[in-house]
Write a structure and sequence with these properties.
Blueprint: E1 4-13, E2 17-27, E3 32-36, H1 43-51, E4 58-63, E5 66-67, E6 78-81, H2 93-103, H3 108-121, H4 137-149, E7 155-159, H5 167-184, E8 187-192, H6 195-201, E9 204-209, E10 212-217, H7 219-224, H8 229-234, E11 239-246, E12 249-252, E13 255-258, E14 264-270, E15 275-279, E16 285-292, E17 297-303, E18 308-313, E19 324-329, E20 333-336, E21 339-343
Helix pairs in contact: 2-3, 2-4, 3-4
């Protein structure tokens, strides 16, 4: 059993700059939790505190009930994989992986056995004698992962490990890492600013903003039921429409729709895939651009006041620039005072 518990942790840098603000989270045994947020949200600072590379200003961090808050990195049962790989270029692959095991005083035979096993695990069997500079970016990242795993940490920490790789390699590696994590059942905390990575890999997503938690939920819940306008706008593509509600009717430009909430300002949120279009000579929106992606089309729309919306359509050939359409949301949510007040 390996459980990471973070309780009321804050990190304040000189300035003062509050990087992490009273943050709490429990990562269950074998769970992969993703910290997701824009640059400056505090996610990497938090991960570095768990790894021991930053000290929290206040709060408590435990692994299996043991206090690790003030321990140095080498005394923590954690393994960290960095975006930059952080491999030693003067050593071959085997020596990179064996270094930590040698520091622990393991016999040569056991070191060799462990290194060969972890290389096979990450798909690099037979690469031990290769120089680091002889490897591709994806192979280097596999070595970085293997170097952490060979030490058999209780908690695996991943700090945007795929950020420097091209899209196809990134997608392949995230699938491989998820498979390895599930096979080993290793508790993992993963930092990314990529929504696709978080949605594809995580058991739960922690959406962070300004050092605080905006929402913690399963990926499908975060996507379909965002609790705040920030989460709604940050996860996936979302049409966020500012308007006014009067007598149970939301209005923005010529677009109006019934919403059973009290009068006042509100933000309407509609996913492009939930926004149906209907051609109409007196439509409330006008087609600005149509993009055909083969599997689907994306229609950019303008309301009368210039507000830009997007709709996903199955047949983009049915729409053209300048065409007037009416909007028919199939699902939507409304927000007020940074909280969701309506969902259909």
């Amino acid at each position: 059993m390996s459980v990471l518990k973070i309780t009321d942790v804050s990190k304040i840098f000189a300035g003062p700059t509050v990087a992490v603000d009273n943050f709490s989270l429990e990562v269950g045994d074998g769970e992969l939790v993703c910290l997701l947020g824009p640059s400056g949200s505090g996610k990497s600072t938090l991960l570095r505190m768990v790894g021991g590379f930053e000290r929290p200003t206040s709060g408590l961090m435990t692994i299996d009930g043991d206090d690790i808050t003030q321990l140095p990195p080498e005394r923590r049962p954690t393994g960290m994989v960095f975006q930059s790989h952080a491999l030693w270029t003067h050593m071959n692959v085997f020596k990179n992986l064996a270094f930590g095991l040698k520091l622990r005083g393991l016999p040569k035979e056991q070191i060799t056995e462990k290194v060969e096993a972890v290389l096979e695990l990450v798909g690099l069997a037979g690469y031990g004698t290769r120089g680091v500079n002889q490897l591709s970016g994806g192979q280097q990242q596999r070595v970085a992962l293997a170097r952490s795993l060979v030490l058999e940490p209780k908690i695996l920490l991943l700090d945007e490990p795929f950020a420097s790789l091209d899209q196809h390699l990134r997608e392949r590696l995230r699938e491989e890492v998820r498979d390895i994590q599930q096979r080993l059942k290793i508790t993992t905390l993963f930092v990314t600013h990529g929504q696709d990575e978080a949605l594809a890999m995580a058991d739960r997503i922690v959406v962070m903003r300004d050092g605080r938690t905006e929402q913690i939920d399963r990926p499908d819940v975060v996507y379909r039921e965002p609790q705040t306008p920030f989460v709604a706008g940050f996860i996936g593509t979302m049409n966020l429409i500012e308007g006014e509600v009067s007598k149970g009717r939301f209005a923005r430009a010529d677009f109006r729709i019934d919403i059973p909430i009290p009068d006042g300002p509100a933000t309407l949120a509609i996913r492009p895939e939930a926004l149906d279009l209907e051609a109409a000579e007196a439509g409330v929106a006008q087609v600005h651009r149509v993009t055909d992606y083969g599997t689907h089309g994306l229609v950019d729309l303008d309301l009368g006041d210039g507000t830009r919306l997007k709709a996903m359509v199955a047949h983009p050939d049915l729409f053209s620039e300048g065409q007037k359409v009416n909007l028919k949301p199939q699902a939507m949510a409304a927000y007020r005072d940074n909280a969701r007040v309506y969902r259909s």
